[in-house]
Amino acid sequence: MKRHIFILLSIISGLLIACSADYDYSPNINTEDLSFITLSSSANEGTIGVNQEVKFMVTSDNTLDNNDITSIATIYINNEPIQQDKYTFNQNGTYLIEAKIDNITSNQLNIKVANGDYYITTSPEEAIIGQEVTFNLYNNAGENLTETATFTVNNSSISSNKYTSTENGTHQINTTINNSTVSASFNVFTPKRKIALEDYTGDWCGWCPRVLLVVDQVYELTDDVVVLAIHKNDNMEASITDHLITSFNVGAALPKLRANRTENISVIQDSSIPEAVNYITNIAGTETNTAIQIETKLAGDNLKVTTELISTETLPNSYKLAVYLYQDGLIYDQANYYNTLEGNPWYNQGNPIENFTHNHVLETNITENSLGDNIETTPAFTSYTKEFPPINLANFAHTDNGNTYDPSRFGVAVFLVDENNNALNAQSVKAGKKVEFKQ
What are the angstrom distances between the C-alpha of 42 and each of 85, 95, 126? Predict the structure, then answer.
């Protein structure tokens, strides 16, 4: 009887092994259908101890359930591939991690490996002024020891593991455990206002290079501007140009320069250029309440955009996010009435200026409404995030006049506007890149 039972169990075991060997446990995903992937990790707020293991997970942005596709991805740490979905960091330092599936690259993660037996994490590491920052103490095995710790910030004791600062700059955190001092730091910043500049122009417009002089001089003095060139009646005209011209009463005569959507900057005469430059640079970079962050993912021709807002004040649902796609490096002749005017930078450049390089060229709106989509009411110090459907950049390729298609020449401009369409802040980033709140 025992012998029969043993034989039966052996047969069942063999069948199970055979079935396991034949079954493919990898996700049923056709990599040709993938566009975007997201990498995440088990690291405590991006900081771990030496010899601590971190597990990684890759998910697909293409599916509703963001299913786990880690098994078909390759994880890279400082550009070196690892063979598993987990890794033990045995040296302190900062590591850059990303995942790849064929030619698709994920977002990047930064993991800090702290030196010593204990380490402190801060969340967030970059805080808007007045925002609460939370500290946690861990040992290098990843165990949370915060309840046993007493923290100091800038050498002053605090009663908990939370702290709010009203001063910009770097703040030092310390705690003592087992006669060892453990340190960390966090930064506090006040958002700066970037000015939205909209240049209504056309390659047929002989006086339009005048506005380019304003834009170029402003860029020499400050980075706190976001420029869109809105073309009319030429090969660079966007489908939303007429709607913008009508909505903001721009009129037919060009050029026109608008600051923060609704403010007309006079550039009727060359003599008005210095005043225009001075005005724009004086208001650019001033302190404001709200910061904008943009993350873009580029996969082949497809661009995915995620925007995030954070403010020291409640953001009402009457505010809107206006998000636009622009393109640099387009080559078309530019009419130039300054060709015979000695002393002008465009003197003797030709009329037209042949093969002129046009930058910041508006292509389309990424938000559903060309003037922006309303946001949700968002309490102070709470982030508002908006993710947009992917956009195919190939649809905006210019291949005439010797132009070639290059996804890296595209960028994204974001305006936060109030109920009267006044731009309160602006931000921009090149396709495939990310710009942080503080930048």
Answer: 11, 14, 21
pLDDT (tens digit, 9 = 90+) per residue, 284-320?
A: 999 999 999 999 999 889 999 999 999 999 999 999 9
> Structure pTM?
0.89
Strands (E), 22-168: 37-41, 47-49, 52-60, 74-77, 80-82, 86-89, 93-101, 104-105, 109-114, 118-123, 126-128, 132-139, 152-153, 156-157, 162-164
Say what angle helices 209-221 and 273-283 make with each other, to 10 degrees. Answer: 40
Write the burial class of residue 373 (CB in 10 Å: 0-12 exposed, 13-18 middle, 19+ buried): middle
Which amino acid makes up residue 163?
Y
CA separation, residue 166 to residues 132, 136, 160, 163, 310 (Å): 10, 21, 18, 10, 16
For β-strands 86-89 and 80-82, DSSP reports them as: unpaired
Helices (H) and strands (E) in the chain, counts: 4, 33
- Residues for the chain: how many in total? 439
Cβ atoms < 10 Å from Cβ of 395 = 10
- Cβ atoms of 332 and 236 within 8 Å: the answer is yes
